[in-house]
């Protein structure tokens, strides 16, 4: 959409919404906490032509009891909004059953734990429920209404556009993107948590989240084969476990397909909250593809001057380069449960030439925790590499075990391993890999080696 058309639409809505959108923003005088809405199918059928938006405010002064909010609330004695602090805007996405999102308070509190900010929650459940194709028709109107609020906070109360950070979940990411489009990319930051894919993958960049929507745009992808988008939409795009099929999400025939997909889709949100809680750092490695990443073809962050991007609130995700490259794919592996952090271990196996194909099982052990990988060895190759997710750092690996697991009749019985090495990504020039050399592995006779290590303080 040309900016002239956007400006006209924005001006019309500015007049319209001063009475419509913000009418719900009375500050509670009775001390009651504001709540997100639910809607039912009957209500939806009656009101689906109307998009209602309300705003809730949470701060460190009221982290458990939201206030209804609008631009007229600012400056009132009962309002906790502080114009000198940054403002986080949470935007939910599609709700299949019309239920209010249960995760909003957890995300708001994680944000407040990480930074002293105003957290504004956008509640548009009436326009976000039941029929996905109709919800997609509503998202730009919601974005326009949010833009009115942001514009009034900027014009009347001195809030700077760069102090706004919009965090959109699923379809909410594209709502945030259109808000950024209306402000010509001058919003400080937009974070997309598994931005919605259906009806957006082939859309024009003006109709979906893209790097021009804010000064910095980051996105986390966890379900790019179903509900999430598979293409990069930000300056940096974190693809967790390749962006699909998250560890810990049930895939058995007894689990519902919907539950399995939703688990993948919502993993971006849960990983983001874990990163905000600061238990451990979730960093990734830039690479052209997930396959190249797993093969150990990408081992450092030199494209970012050695600083690997991290999920969370660090400025520009911790990237030091300027200007920030656009649409950089960042890959990382996670564990199956919170806090989801894993150490990326590069495992390299070199064997002498083989007469037959073979299989070797490699296990890295720390205390009672083990990480296992099976190499399929071929006669035409001698060097094999893979990247593994291990729960602790390289210096805490206690032992390594190799086992020839090939079938007796048609696999090689004896394998000579020239070397097996483990190192931690990103590779650093001053850190040598752990290697064991000259090993003979016979079928049915496991081989193991204990490491004696002390972790450094740096």
Automatic annotation (TrEMBL):
<keyword id="KW-0378">Hydrolase</keyword>
<dbReference type="InterPro" id="IPR016272">
    <property type="entry name" value="Lipase_LIPH"/>
</dbReference>
<keyword id="KW-0443">Lipid metabolism</keyword>
<feature type="signal peptide">
    <location>
        <begin position="1"/>
        <end position="23"/>
    </location>
</feature>
<feature type="binding site">
    <location>
        <position position="208"/>
    </location>
    <ligand>
        <name>Ca(2+)</name>
    </ligand>
</feature>
<dbReference type="GO" id="GO:0016042">
    <property type="term" value="P:lipid catabolic process"/>
</dbReference>
<keyword id="KW-0479">Metal-binding</keyword>
<keyword id="KW-0106">Calcium</keyword>
<comment type="similarity">
    <text>Belongs to the AB hydrolase superfamily. Lipase family.</text>
</comment>
<feature type="active site" description="Charge relay system">
    <location>
        <position position="265"/>
    </location>
</feature>
<dbReference type="GO" id="GO:0008970">
    <property type="term" value="F:phospholipase A1 activity"/>
</dbReference>
<keyword id="KW-0442">Lipid degradation</keyword>
<dbReference type="GO" id="GO:0005615">
    <property type="term" value="C:extracellular space"/>
</dbReference>
<dbReference type="GO" id="GO:0046872">
    <property type="term" value="F:metal ion binding"/>
</dbReference>
<protein>
    <recommendedName>
        <fullName>Phospholipase A1 member A</fullName>
    </recommendedName>
</protein>
<dbReference type="Pfam" id="PF00151">
    <property type="entry name" value="Lipase"/>
</dbReference>
<feature type="active site" description="Charge relay system">
    <location>
        <position position="194"/>
    </location>
</feature>
<dbReference type="InterPro" id="IPR033906">
    <property type="entry name" value="Lipase_N"/>
</dbReference>
<keyword id="KW-0732">Signal</keyword>
<feature type="binding site">
    <location>
        <position position="210"/>
    </location>
    <ligand>
        <name>Ca(2+)</name>
    </ligand>
</feature>
<feature type="active site" description="Nucleophile">
    <location>
        <position position="170"/>
    </location>
</feature>
<dbReference type="InterPro" id="IPR013818">
    <property type="entry name" value="Lipase"/>
</dbReference>
<keyword id="KW-0964">Secreted</keyword>
<keyword id="KW-1015">Disulfide bond</keyword>
<feature type="domain" description="Lipase">
    <location>
        <begin position="32"/>
        <end position="340"/>
    </location>
</feature>
<dbReference type="InterPro" id="IPR029058">
    <property type="entry name" value="AB_hydrolase_fold"/>
</dbReference>
<dbReference type="InterPro" id="IPR000734">
    <property type="entry name" value="TAG_lipase"/>
</dbReference>
<feature type="binding site">
    <location>
        <position position="213"/>
    </location>
    <ligand>
        <name>Ca(2+)</name>
    </ligand>
</feature>
<keyword id="KW-0325">Glycoprotein</keyword>
């Amino acid at each position: 959409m040309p900016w002239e058309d956007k400006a006209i639409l924005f001006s019309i809505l500015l007049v319209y919404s001063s009475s419509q959108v913000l009418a719900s923003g009375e500050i509670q005088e009775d001390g009651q906490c504001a709540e997100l809405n639910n809607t039912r199918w009957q209500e939806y059928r009656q009101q689906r032509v109307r998009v209602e938006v309300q705003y809730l405010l949470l701060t460190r002064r009221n982290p458990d009891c939201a206030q209804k909010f609008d631009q007229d609330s600012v400056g009132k004695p009962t309002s906790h909004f502080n114009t000198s602090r940054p403002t986080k805007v949470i935007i939910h996405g599609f709700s299949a059953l019309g239920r209010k999102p249960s995760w909003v308070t957890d995300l708001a509190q994680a944000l407040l734990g990480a930074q002293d900010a105003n957290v504004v929650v956008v509640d548009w459940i009436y326009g976000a429920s039941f029929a996905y194709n109709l919800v997609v028709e509503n998202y730009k109107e919601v974005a326009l209404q949010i833009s009115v609020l942001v514009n009034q906070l900027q014009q009347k109360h001195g809030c700077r556009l760069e102090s706004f950070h919009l965090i959109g979940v699923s379809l909410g990411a594209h709502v945030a993107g259109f808000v950024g489009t209306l402000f010509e990319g001058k919003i400080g930051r937009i974070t997309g948590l598994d931005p919605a894919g259906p009806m957006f993958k082939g859309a024009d960049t003006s109709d979906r989240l893209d790097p021009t929507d804010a000064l910095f745009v980051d996105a986390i992808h966890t379900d790019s084969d179903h509900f999430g988008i598979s293409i990069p939409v930000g300056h940096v795009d974190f693809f967790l476990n390749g962006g699909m099929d998250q560890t810990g999400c049930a895939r058995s025939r007894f689990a519902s397909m919907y539950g399995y997909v939703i688990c993948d889709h919502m993993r971006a949100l849960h990983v983001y909250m874990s990163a905000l809680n600061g238990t451990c750092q979730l960093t990734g490695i830039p690479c052209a593809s997930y396959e190249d990443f797993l093969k150990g073809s990408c081992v450092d962050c030199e494209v970012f001057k050695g600083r690997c991007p991290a999920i969370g609130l660090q400025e520009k995700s911790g990237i030091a380069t300027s200007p920030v490259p656009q649409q950089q794919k960042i890959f990382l592996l996670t564990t199956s449960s919170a806090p989801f952090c894993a150490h990326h271990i590069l495992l390299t196996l070199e064997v002498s030439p083989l007469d037959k194909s073979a299989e070797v099982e490699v296990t890295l052990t720390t205390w009672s925790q083990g990480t296992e990988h099976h190499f399929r060895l071929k006669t035409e190759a001698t060097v094999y590499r893979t990247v593994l997710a291990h729960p602790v750092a390289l210096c805490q690996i206690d032992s390594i075990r190799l086992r020839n697991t090939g079938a007796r009749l048609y696999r090689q019985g004896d394998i000579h391993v020239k070397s097996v090495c483990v190192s931690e990504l990103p590779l650093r020039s001053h850190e040598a890999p752990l290697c064991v050399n000259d090993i003979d592995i016979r079928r049915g006779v496991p081989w193991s080696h204990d490491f004696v290590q002390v972790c450094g303080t740096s």
